[in-house]
Amino acid sequence: MSSMEERDVGVVAAPGSSSAGMGVGAVGAAVEAVAVVAAMQEEVGIRREGPEPDPDEPPKKRVRVPDGESGKLEERLYSVLCCTVCLDLPKASVYQCTNGHLMCAGCFIHLLADSRLKEEQATCPNCRCEISKNLCCRNLAVEKAVSELPTECTFCIKQFPRSSLGRHQKEECQDRVTQCKYKRIGCPWQGPFHELPAHESECSHPSKTGTELMGILGEMDQNHRRDMQLYNSIFGLLCYEKIGFTEVQFRPYRTDDFITRLYYETPRFTVLNQTWVLKARVNDSERNPNLSCKRTLSFQLILKSKVNSALECSFLLLKGPYDDVRIKPVIHHHSFCNDANETEYVPLPISDSVECNKLLAAKNINLRLFIFQVQK
Description:
Apoptosis, Tumor Necrosis Factor Receptor Associated Protein 2, Chain A; single chain
């Protein structure tokens, strides 16, 4: 029998037949043929369309996917570390619910503020478990991982780690937007940093006449005077004889109307030997402030004591000593008497809706109130 015939007999031999009569070469060839067939069956099994595998089965060894199909590691991490609400990588703090779902600080605060407006318990958008500042915690590992992921510079479109992107855009990027050093005398030029030396060497503003420069500087002085007027007014109030301040805490309540509305009120407090109360409302008592992207708070000061004569006062609200909300001080004036013991609602001078959401997300709003009694 030829060697080819021996090889064929070795492959098709019955399972019960003895292999003692086979040569070493025949046995090796049989093993090689079985391995080739098994590999072909595995490849065909991968390509064959059949029923989906049972999820309870133990995981099988996966076939390695080429790099072109799997994508970059950064792209895969992006989908893992992104916020479950806005689907973007967090830029600052990262919070997680009790089941580990991630939320950026902005979306987390927005969810808490929405639940306050709707009088509902805030829940995770993924698993619907309860979330709050006490139940959720920050995930420092995710924050550090996100800071090391690369991102594009908005000016030069080069890749940099997120932790160093801010310094690059402010100090190092040659394409960052900059202004002419003669801006203070009216030059409106803005352009990439690498073009700045060429522009400044040809800028016409240094050669302007004194009369032209005085007109430009006059407009700048007007803006400066408006900024200084507030601080001068505050310094003037600090010279008053009767000055009082206290920490106030706004607590959320609901109206008893058919359509309930959220409002805030402080307990009674005493300043300048008088009893006062502060009230605040959201979006000036808008019917559904939770449907609005723009959110504001306004407040009024109420005198609860009876007075024998008019009490003329100036007052302002500032942020509390332990809050991080940004409030620009605004001075208000009112003459209190028994017939006019309430001020009009005035806007709380917060910068934007993000700061308003910070206040709404808190259990209570803590601020500091100053009252200055005007001397007659």
